[in-house]
Write a structure and sequence with these properties.
heterodimer, A: 4-stranded parallel sheet, B: 228 residues, alpha/beta, 4-stranded parallel sheet, 8 helices
């Protein structure tokens, strides 16, 4: 299976206050990804996840806070529902729902970031490049 | 509000597969409230269709547009202009909105992205329940604000049937409803009792005029005072 190239991470600024730390954690696994900061993981909408995949990303990951620590109370919980909802679109399309994933990290904890990077690496191993990427990116 | 749900992606792809430039037109009133046809859902569907077409190796241009209310002709002027550059329109409005747009676009096919289901309310987040059938002869004043036509599975007007059990309708035996369907007449009786007017049910009312509802053909309301 050829390795995936394009990882996009949408990261809550509370969970990942320093994107460079997440980049470093990903690098330990040989992964490079574009990290987009969000004021809360609940800012991530289902259509954004699908749109990012439609622009050619192979794997899209959301990093939020543990549910009980979300500063916006329900934000991280809502993020979970939205990722699942966007995954249902992928299933309907015949694409792998595993192209979307999430992790919850407590306030930039290094162990949490490393674990999240590990989860992304593990998921990336199971995927091939996005078959639905636009022809211009093929 | 009118409640609808999105058609399957397979059906939608089948409808628009022959077109290269498709305009998605949403409505930010009823169908936005039930999370099926508003601005967000237009973006979701556009991205999903983009993925679907790219998977199939097809190049299709998709444009998103949403108006406040798609059933009002004056609100459609911008969409009509936009639609001139597209081969087809996929409307995420209810049936009324789809038709309002189709009336204005005689040379552009307009397809419905939703199945329009019922008039209802947001009972709680993520749950919409039917509570009006547009019967044209509203009995809510008599039944304490609970509609026996939309909320009784048999549309009974004379009280509960023999199937009511523990406040639930016997329709729950046929299908697993979550939450279970309450017996509308059980609710009506409880409400009238709370209002102190339960004995109202002993009064014989004239039969309902069903010709004001679905039986009377396409309905209309005319208000000369509203015309210019």
């Amino acid at each position: 299976m050829s390795p995936i190239q394009d990882l996009v991470v949408l990261a809550c600024t509370q969970a990942v206050p320093d994107p460079a730390a997440l980049s470093q954690a990903l690098k330990q696994f040989g992964l490079r990804g574009r990290i987009i900061q969000e004021p809360c993981s609940s800012k991530v909408e289902a259509f954004q996840l699908l749109r990012i995949l439609a622009t050619g990303a192979d794997l899209v990951w959301v990093v939020g806070c543990p549910e009980q620590y979300c500063q916006l109370v329900e934000g991280s919980t809502r993020m979970g529902f939205r990722v699942a909802y966007a995954q249902s679109y992928l299933t309907e399309l015949g694409l792998e729902p595993e192209r979307l994933g999430l992790s919850r990290v407590a306030a930039g904890e290094p162990e949490g970031l490393a674990a999240a990077a590990g989860e992304m690496h593990q998921r990336a191993q199971t995927l091939s490049p996005n078959p639905a990427r636009p022809q211009s990116k093929a | 509000m009118i409640v609808g749900t999105r058609k399957s992606l397979e059906e939608l792809q089948g409808m628009v597969s022959g077109y290269k430039k498709i305009l998605l037109s949403g409505c930010d009133t009823c169908v936005a409230e039930c999370a099926s046809g508003g601005r967000r859902e237009v973006s979701e569907l556009a991205a999903a269709l983009q993925l679907a077409f790219q998977l199939a190796g097809k190049e299709v241009v998709l444009k998103e547009s949403t108006v406040d209310r798609q059933c009002i002709h004056e609100f459609l002027l911008d969409v009509i202009d936009l639609a001139q550059d597209y081969d087809a329109v996929l409307s995420l409005a209810c049936g009324a909105g789809v038709q309002a747009l189709a009336t204005k676009l005689e040379k552009t096919p307009v397809f419905p992205a939703l199945n329009t289901l019922f008039i209802g309310e947001t009972a709680e987040r993520g749950l919409w329940l039917e509570n009006c059938r547009g019967c044209g002869d509203c009995q809510l004043g008599y039944t304490g604000g609970i509609c026996p036509i939309s909320r009784c599975a048999k549309r009974l007007l004379n009280g509960p049937c023999g199937g009511t059990s523990n406040g639930l309708c016997e329709i729950n035996l046929a299908k697993d409803y979550d939450p279970p369907v309450p017996c509308a007449w059980d609710q009506i009786c409880a409400r009238l009792q709370n209002l102190g007017v339960l004995d109202r049910l002993f009064n014989v009312k004239p039969s309902m005029d069903w010709s004001k509802g679905e039986a009377g053909g396409p309905r209309r309301v005319v208000r000369p005072d509203q015309k210019l």
